[in-house]
């Protein structure tokens, strides 16, 4: 059975279509062999007349089972795009969609009152939803702006741009799909951010009105995340990159090198930056006031 789940490249756009019984028969299968393929696990019957190959990621299968396409935060996570927090399946639905099913069983009707129920994103009839199991990335990014706070939305778009899976023309399309009030976010986008917390930190510094540069190379030290007022270094730490003792020793060596050159440094964690931005902002303000 040929796969219909076809990532263009690692982290790249996902192309995935479901198959219908008519397509399977046209490819040379009989009705009996279709049923046998389902029983053996060579095919997954996600819902009536919707067949999926077993290499498709589970969120995609669940979206088809509901009756739509994977979109928004769920699809972005599949692409490795930064998402602040997501605990639910996001599904793109046609305006006239009906007979929706639970993501876990095609025999169970969708219960929309559960806190774990999928988030349904309804589309106008004019926007075609065909056999593709995933919404276009531009649509998913537009949905993510509606589903997240402004800083998290900017961080997701930054991440998609940084990973190279969308470009400037795509971002223009994203904002064309959104209500006009979201246009204020567009000037805040910067593809140089290497992580979601870096986007959050950039927006914090921007809100303070202080002068800063991102991704600055300092001789004898290397590249730092932010340099504020020419002397205050801000590094955005994450557990993934700084949990090992060897990494922490390297960080301390960098701190000593910075101090020897006359730089001060603060190193808030990713959780501090995203969950308590006011506290991080106060730390920056306090440092700047002290120096001045």
Which structural traits does this protein have?
Endonuclease, Chain A, alpha+beta, 4-stranded mixed beta sheet, single chain, 17% strand, elongated, 13 strands, 12 helices, 2 domains
Question: Please, could you describe this protein's structure?
Answer:
Residues 209-287 form the DUF559 domain. By secondary structure, the chain is α+β, with helices and mostly antiparallel strands. It folds into 2 domains: 5-188, no CATH class; 196-291, Endonuclease, Chain A, CATH 3.40.960. It is built from 12 helices and 13 strands. The protein has helices at residues 21-26, 31-40, 58-66, 72-78, 137-147, 150-162, 168-176, 196-208, 239-242, 245-260, 270-275, 277-291, and strands at 5-7, 14-16, 44-47, 50-52, 69-70, 90-93, 101-102, 105-109, 119-122, 212-218, 222-228, 232-234, 264-266. It has a 4-stranded mixed beta sheet, sandwiched between helices. Strands 5-6-9 form a 3-stranded mixed beta sheet. Strands 1-2 form a two-stranded antiparallel ribbon. Strand 3 and strand 4 (50-52) form a beta hairpin.
Describe the SSE topology.
Layout: E1 5-7, E2 14-16, H1 21-26, H2 31-40, E3 44-47, E4 50-52, H3 58-66, E5 69-70, H4 72-78, E6 90-93, E7 101-102, E8 105-109, E9 119-122, H5 137-147, H6 150-162, H7 168-176, H8 196-208, E10 212-218, E11 222-228, E12 232-234, H9 239-242, H10 245-260, E13 264-266, H11 270-275, H12 277-291
Parallel strand pairs: 6-9, 12-13
Antiparallel strand pairs: 1-2, 3-4, 5-6, 7-8, 10-11, 11-12
Helix pairs in contact: 4-5, 5-6, 5-7, 6-8, 8-12
């Amino acid at each position: 059975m040929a796969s219909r789940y076809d990532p263009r490249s690692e982290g790249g756009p996902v192309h995935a279509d479901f198959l219908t019984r008519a397509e399977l028969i046209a490819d040379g299968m009989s009705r009996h062999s279709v049923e046998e393929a389902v029983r053996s696990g060579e095919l997954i019957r996600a819902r009536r007349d919707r067949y999926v190959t077993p290499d498709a990621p589970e969120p995609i299968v669940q979206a088809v089972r509901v009756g739509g396409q994977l979109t928004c935060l769920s699809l972005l996570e599949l692409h490795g795009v930064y998402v602040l927090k997501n605990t639910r399946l996001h599904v793109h639905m046609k305006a006239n969609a009906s007979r929706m099913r639970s993501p876990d069983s095609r025999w169970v009707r969708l219960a929309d009152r559960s806190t774990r129920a999928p988030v349904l994103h309804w589309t106008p009839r004019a926007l075609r939803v065909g056999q593709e199991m995933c919404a276009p990335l531009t649509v998913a990014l537009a949905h993510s702006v509606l589903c997240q706070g402004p800083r998290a939305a900017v961080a997701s778009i930054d991440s998609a741009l940084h990973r190279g899976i969308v470009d400037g023309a795509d971002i223009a399309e994203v904002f064309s799909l959104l209500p006009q009030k979201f246009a204020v976010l567009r000037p805040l986008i910067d593809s140089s951010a290497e992580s979601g917390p870096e986007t959050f930190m950039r927006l914090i510094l921007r809100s303070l009105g202080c002068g800063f540069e991102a991704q600055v190379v300092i001789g004898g030290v290397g590249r730092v995340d932010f340099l504020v007022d020419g002397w205050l270094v801000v590094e955005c730490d994450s557990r993934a990159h700084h949990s090992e003792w060897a990494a922490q020793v390297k960080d301390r060596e960098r701190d000593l090198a910075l101090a020897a050159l006359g730089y001060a440094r603060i190193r808030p964690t990713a959780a501090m930056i995203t969950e308590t931005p006011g506290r991080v902002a106060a730390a920056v303000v306090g440092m700047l006031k002290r120096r001045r």
